[in-house]
Amino acid sequence: MPLLASNEGVWEGWYRYYDAKTGALTDEHRSRLFCRLTGEPGHEEYTQTNHYFWDDGRVDVREFPAWYENGRIWWDNDLIKGWAAAMQPDDRNRSTCLNWTRHDEPDIYLYEMIQVNEDRTKRARTWQWFRDGECYQRTLIDERLVTRDWASFTDTSAPKI
C-alpha cells in the first residue's frame, strides 16, 4: 500500500470531537503519532503509536500494530478491530478509508477518511461514529508531518501547535 507507506513518520496535530446533532465541541486534544514500517522489505509490518495530550495534563498512549493482507491493512488488538485501504478510484492517490469497531463497544462502528496533500506533509482526517444506525459523533483531525525519521525523534513533551 504505497499511500500508507508515504505516511511513515511523526505527525502532530489536533483531535476535535463534535456532537453530530448539535455540532457542539465535546472534546479536543493535541496528538503526536508515530507511523512506522518495520521488518524485511516485502514483509514489513505497520505499527502506529498515538500520544494524546490534553490541556489539563492528561496523557494517553495507544499502540496499534497491524498487518497487510489482500490489499488492506488490518488491525485486531485489545482496543479495535478493523481495516484501512486506499480509496478507489482516487487518481491522485491521496485518500484512505478505514473502518473499525471497538472491542468494548461492539454496537459502535466508525468510518475514517484520510486525505493528504500532494507532498504528503499535511493531512486531514474525519471520523464518523455510528451507534444503532445513526451518526452520533464526528471527529476532525488536522495534522502536519514533523519528520519522516521516527526512529530518531525523542521529544516527549506535548506538541506546541
DSSP strand (E) fraction?
over 45%
Report how far the terminal alpha carbons are from each other: 30 Å
User: Strand-and-helix sequence, N→C?
Assistant: HEEEEEEEEEE
**In terms of per-residue confidence, which ranges show pLDDT below 50 for 5 or more consecutive residues?**
none
What's the arrangement of strands in the largest beta sheet? 1-2-3-4-5-6-7-8-9-10
Integer average pLDDT: 93
Helix fraction? under 10%
Give the overall shape: globular
Major sheet characteristics: 10 strands, antiparallel, barrel
The radius of gyration over CA amounts to 16 Å
Question: Which structural class do the helices and strands define?
Answer: mainly beta
How many β strands by DSSP? 10
Count of helix runs: 1
Quick recap:
With 161 residues, the protein is mainly β.
Characteristic key phrases:
10-stranded antiparallel barrel, 1 helix
Please characterize this protein's 3D structure.
It is a single chain. A ten-stranded antiparallel β-barrel has the order 1-2-3-4-5-6-7-8-9-10. The protein is built from one helix and ten strands. It has about 160 residues and is mainly β. The radius of gyration is 16 Å and the shape is globular.
Question: Could you outline the blueprint of secondary structure elements for this entry?
Answer:
Blueprint: H1 2-5, E1 9-19, E2 25-38, E3 45-53, E4 59-69, E5 72-76, E6 80-86, E7 95-102, E8 105-116, E9 122-131, E10 134-147
Antiparallel strand pairs: 1-2, 1-10, 2-3, 3-4, 4-5, 5-6, 6-7, 7-8, 8-9, 9-10
